[in-house]
Structure formats: C-alpha cells, structure tokens
Amino acid sequence: MKKVLFTIVISMIMTVVSFAQNAAPQPAANPNSPVITFEKTTHDYGTVTKGGDGTCEFKFKNTGVEPLILSNVSSSCGCTVPEWPREPILKGKSASIKVKYDTNRPGPINKTVTVMSNGKVSSVQLRIIGNVVVASTGAQMPENNQGAAPVAK
Fold it and tell me: Hey, where are the domains in the chain?
C-alpha cells in the first residue's frame, strides 16, 4: 500500500512540476534585420572532365534594411573551398560567394556550403552537384592484338 501511495504522490509532483515550467520568452523579430536573397542556391556543373574548371559563383543581395554580415561560410568537405566577402553588405547591395571544387576526384558531386550570417534567416545551405569523368585519350588498341601499343598513323 505504501508503494502505491508513494508512486501516486511522485506522479502528481512530476505532473505539477512539468506544467509549472514556462518556455523562455522569445525576443521579437527585428523588422530591420538584413535579408540575404540568393539568385540560386544550387549550382549544377553537369559533366566536368577530371582536372577541369570547378569554380562557380553564388550571387546574393541584401534585401533587408541593416547591413548584412557573413560570419562564416563552410563546406561539407575539404574538396570544396568557398571565398566570401568579409565586409558588411549594405542595404540593396550585391556580392557573391565563390566556390572552387577539386575536379581531380572522379565521380558524382553532391556537396553543401553553409552560409552563416546576421540575416533574418541565419543559416542558408547552398549546393553544388554534377559529375566528374575521366577524359578518354583517343588512342585505340588494335582489335586482333590487344597487348600491343597503339598504332600511329
């Protein structure tokens, strides 16, 4: 009987304590916050040959009121290197984030670049996609002598 009574009392205390906790009040959103607006958030390289040009650019504009500051831009992998403006982007001004992908790695490309800022949306994900292929040399082996060197004409 004591165990049942003890269990009921503990359950009631836990219920009262859980209802008594209030969520911390959220600060009101700043109507003058900077807003980062990208022209595109995904860049498709398509098919790129190994060692080819792996650069792309993500253009954006501050469509908010206060200056936009990019605090960090990081990639999901060391094969993707972003460059971004370190100075504040004023209201109505545009800038870009340049991304360089190492195309010496054959295979599919599916990487993300995370942009952290003081904007109304503090984190934006950019994506690069595509496929890196090895270029063929064009030299062919004779059909009847597969171990021989390519024939020069």
Answer: 36-133
Strand order from edge to edge, sheet including 123-133: 42-49, 123-133, 107-117, 70-75
Beta strands in the chain (DSSP E): 36-38, 42-49, 55-62, 70-75, 80-83, 94-101, 107-117, 123-133
Q: Which of 98, 29, 99, 40 is nearest to 64 (CA)?
A: 29
pTM: 0.71
**What is the rounded CA–CA span in Å between residue 105 and residue 107?**
7
Return the CATH class of domain 36-133: mainly beta
Give residue-wise pLDDT tens across range 92-145.
999 999 999 999 999 999 999 999 999 999 999 999 999 999 987 544 444 444
CB atoms within 10 A of CB 78: 7
Q: How far apart are CA 77 and CA 115, in angstroms?
A: 14
